[in-house]
Amino acid sequence: MRTTRTVSAVAAVATLVAGSVLTTTPAQAKAGTTPLTEVLAADGNRYDRSWDDFDVAEKAVRAVIKADPNSPVAVLADGDTALTAFVPTDRAFRKLVTSIAGERPATEKATFAAVASLGLDTVEDVLLYHVVPGATVKYAAAKKSDGARLETALGKHIGINVAGGEVRIVDADRNARNARVIAAAKNINLGNKQIAHGIDRVLRPMDL
């Protein structure tokens, strides 16, 4: 796998662009250090029949780390490093596979296999595009931040769009619908240095 990025680069402070009103909470000594990899696997390190949890994302992270322990994706297993992640549900990954392959996988296992077939370099890029390093962004702050742009661990930006009481994440793909933050899956791992929000679509770092 590529080694052009470093974990230290991923841990850099998030960049807020274009007059954003977004406020972030810097990591504090009292914040917990439970990493997101543990939280995403809270229901067990296995596939199941719930499409609304994060088994595919968790397995994708672990697959990248197994292939390259020095991958910057490993930051998601380092609870001492502050970050915010927008994590697609299993259903979101199935939507991605369906849009690319034209067929909807029947199981989470098949969904992960299809994602992995894109190549671990691609999977690594996609995962990093969902990570905002350096600080926590709580859901309440995001709801007050229409128009904010955030620099991701991939080095590309995502935007925040707030409309109708919903928070949507604007990615680089103009041909697909923007991901919605799932209110019932907000502030995952709250109180720790790593926080996440579940989203209903996979963010794309380029037009597809």
Automatic annotation (TrEMBL):
Domain FAS1: 41-203
PROSITE patterns: FAS1
Alphabetic keyword roster: Signal
Signal peptide: 1-29
Pfam families assigned: Fasciclin
Record InterPro entries: Adhesion/Biosynth-related, FAS1_dom_sf, FAS1_domain
Name of the protein: Fasciclin domain-containing protein
Organism: Nocardioides iriomotensis
